[in-house]
């Protein structure tokens, strides 16, 4: 499931399978799958997605089930489950 | 929030584009601050996981709901908010800010009253927004949704007198609804410069205890 974008891909599997989650990150055009630990800060995954898509972290917002994701959040703190999706949104701006 | 965000609210103080078009971070954060204050005032405790009396969805809901299976996807949001299915009917007021084509507007759903209001400081076409939120309510409620029960309210917002202030109207119209006031009477175009400063003060303080 995970691809070269996974922050932990090169690391040895030092825990049980249930410790890891597959998380999809998508901006509706691109989908990137990550396999991360429940306690891994989502900053890793957000930065990796931005790097890969050539986006500045300030220009996008990550949402999980309608909640804004902070870089310091992790799957445990957000009660994420295997297969969940992070939505990536562009800045919205309006005046007229 | 960053100086960039505040630059969309008070451009001359924070080096933003002169137009002063609000961005989503300002809109969503302000709504969450005033909603949280209202929840506190009503004695709602988040950790109880009960349905909140008032709630605001993030403005990205409109993007999400317009994707394939959008309404079903939005039920994941409502689950997190404890407003899924029939829980929706326990809420007094749910706010749905919309940013589309560089224009901010507000949908306000009052489940207990069975009313849906669309507030637009340019008095644009409202049918699409009302229809979409009805589709969403129908998805949540299933058989409990009886279309004829839900009345629609439009054209209560005052008009903006420039091409910049729709986001400020959106936030202050929301503020007026939360305080039980008629937005059209409480929020006027000439109030907008002060409103921008009040929004900034509220965001910096993280608390909406000030006077309306």
From TrEMBL, chain A:
Pfam families: Rad60-SLD. Gene3D superfamilies: Phosphatidylinositol 3-kinase Catalytic Subunit, Chain A, domain 1 (3.10.20.90). This is Ubiquitin-like protein-like protein SMT3. SMART domains: UBQ. It comes from Lepidopterella palustris CBS 459.81. PROSITE patterns: UBIQUITIN_2 (PS50053). Residues 19-95 form the Ubiquitin-like domain. Residues 1-24 are annotated as: Disordered. InterPro entries: Rad60/SUMO-like_dom, Ubiquitin-like_dom, Ubiquitin-like_domsf.
UniProtKB/TrEMBL annotation, chain B:
GO terms for cellular component: nucleus. Pfam families: Peptidase_C48 (PF02902). The keyword Protease applies. Keywords: Hydrolase, Protease, Thiol protease. PANTHER family: GH15225P-RELATED, SENTRIN/SUMO-SPECIFIC PROTEASE. This is Cysteine proteinase. Coiled coil: none annotated. Gene3D superfamilies: Adenoviral Proteinase, Chain A. One of its GO terms (molecular function) is deSUMOylase activity. It comes from Lepidopterella palustris CBS 459.81. Residues 1-177 form the Ubiquitin-like protease family profile domain. One of its GO terms (biological process) is protein desumoylation. Belongs to the peptidase C48 family.
């Amino acid at each position: 499931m995970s691809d070269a974008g996974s922050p932990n891909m090169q690391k040895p599997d030092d825990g049980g399978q249930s410790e890891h989650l597959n998380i999809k990150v998508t901006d509706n055009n691109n989908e990137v799958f990550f396999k991360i630990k429940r306690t891994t800060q989502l900053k890793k995954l957000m930065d990796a997605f931005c790097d890969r898509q050539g986006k500045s972290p300030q220009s996008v917002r990550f949402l999980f089930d309608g909640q804004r994701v902070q870089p310091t959040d992790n799957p445990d703190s957000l009660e994420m489950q295997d297969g969940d999706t992070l939505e990536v949104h562009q800045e919205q701006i309006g005046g007229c | 929030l960053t100086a960039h965000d505040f630059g969309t609210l008070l451009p001359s103080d924070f080096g933003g584009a002169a137009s002063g078009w609000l961005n989503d971070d300002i809109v969503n954060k302000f709504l969450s601050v005033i909603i949280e204050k209202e929840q506190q005032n009503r004695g709602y405790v988040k950790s109880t996981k009960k349905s909140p009396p008032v709630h605001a969805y993030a403005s990205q809901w409109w993007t999400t709901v317009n994707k394939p299976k959008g309404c079903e996807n939005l039920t994941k949001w409502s689950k997190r908010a404890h407003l899924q299915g029939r829980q929706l009917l326990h809420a007094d007021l749910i706010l749905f800010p919309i940013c589309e084509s560089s224009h901010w507007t507000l949908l306000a759903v009052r489940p207990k009253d069975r009313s849906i209001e669309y507030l637009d400081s340019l008095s644009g076409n409202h049918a699409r927004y009302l229809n979409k939120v009805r589709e969403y309510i129908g998805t949540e409620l299933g058989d409990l949704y009886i279309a004829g029960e839900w009345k629609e309210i439009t054209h209560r917002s005052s008009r903006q007198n420039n091409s910049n202030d729709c986001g400020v109207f959106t936030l202050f119209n929301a503020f007026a609804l939360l305080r039980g006031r008629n937005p059209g009477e409480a929020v006027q175009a000439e109030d907008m410069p002060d409103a921008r400063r009040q929004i900034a003060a509220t965001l910096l303080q993280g608390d909406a205890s000030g006077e309306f």
